[in-house]
Amino acid sequence: MTGGTTEGKTRPRGRPRTFDRDAALAVAVRLFWERGYEATSVGELTAAMGIRPASLYAAFGDKKSLFREAVEVYGRSPVGAFVGVALAEEATAYGAFARILREAARVYADPSHPAGCLANSAATNVTEQDAEIAAFLRDVRNAGVASFEERLRQGRAAGELPKDTDTAALASYFAAVVQGLSQRARDGADAQELARVAEFALAAWPGGRD
Amino acid sequence: MTGGTTEGKTRPRGRPRTFDRDAALAVAVRLFWERGYEATSVGELTAAMGIRPASLYAAFGDKKSLFREAVEVYGRSPVGAFVGVALAEEATAYGAFARILREAARVYADPSHPAGCLANSAATNVTEQDAEIAAFLRDVRNAGVASFEERLRQGRAAGELPKDTDTAALASYFAAVVQGLSQRARDGADAQELARVAEFALAAWPGGRD
DNA sequence: ACTCTTCTTGAGCGCTCGCTCAAGAAGAGT
DNA sequence: ACTCTTCTTGAGCGAGCGCTCAAGAAGAGT
């Protein structure tokens, strides 16, 4: 509410901003998360932020830059970061993916924010002129698949998976399940249903539960 | 190429249409499949169909009606109907879902048409004024989940699944996997990768492969 | 031949889109 | 007090959106 969080040191010269940039960005995250990039207009954004278009453009550049910042903020938030945290914190590969699926089930269906994952659903339908936005999120998703595979290869090297496990395909499988959980959440599935889906998905773990 | 396919009996009165309605509809299916509902403009549609806007509106009503017709056509095409066909034709529940996943892997990554499933990806991002279109496709998807569950309950009754199997959750699981396959295909995964994903997904079948 | 019906053509409607600009306001620096 | 810088305000730009209308064209019915 008070004071911008970007007060690194001294206040920059010129007239100070009259709105909270981070709060406005959080509003943008919400709207983009809910409807997606193109379906959220600058008019809706400025109305929800309580500012005029020129202020938005002065603070964020243009709509694409605002979206990219929104994706970054989302990725640093708990709901956007839980995958990376689980991959880093869990001792075993199975433990990591079990946690990812179970947390995805809970987080994607959490009614306190839009359903599903912003990175999965915010730029599915775009016109040609915003193809770079779609490509940006696709790269984010495919980077997630790559991080899955990296963790699975580590687990295989540690003897947690059969030596002949196709880690690339298994990573793609878990990515598909996570994206499917996001889609099901957006279609109305609740946390309980998704939690049970997660348990079915984990039953596919090669060589039985580790 | 020649002759409208809608020639039920006598030609209707008035000046005959100069373009092939079904061919134009097939073009619309392609565009909506590729980019989605709102990201495909009437201008792009008419340009690709080779007709003027007034002809499109005379033949199809409005953009929403055209989209709904396109979804119907897609649903009757092999790539849109394979799920229902597999559910009806396969003798066992496991056989049905194995076929569904394997065909989804092949069909969603088939480079001869847009990747993934139109029903999964064509109305993810819509403005408020097209909320009914998003709801329409969501209903289509959830009806698919219901048909999955119906088939699983049949299988459970036939002793193909443990008596305590949570068929609703298992149906949601397979739906999530199918939707995940669609998403992965749109992100560039090829048929070989998706086929391996399908095999991992099938390993989750309760009580082992039937 | 004439009418009736429907489609095609070309122009263009009202609206919203992302975005910008000139003028004024509010702080810091001197 | 004055300047310098930056933000806010209000108006509005050009472009594209979905869609429509009047006029003419092309067939069937009589």
Automatic annotation (TrEMBL), chains A, B:
DNA-binding region: 41-60
Coiled-coil ranges (or none): none
PROSITE patterns assigned to the protein according to its UniProt record, in alphabetical order: HTH_TETR_2
One Pfam family of this chain: TetR_N
InterPro entries the UniProt entry points to: Homeodomain-like_sf, HTH_TetR, Tet_transcr_reg_TetR-rel_C_sf, TetR_C
Ranges annotated as spanning the membrane: none
Protein name: TetR/AcrR family transcriptional regulator
Phylogenetic lineage: Bacteria, Bacillati, Actinomycetota, Actinomycetes, Kitasatosporales
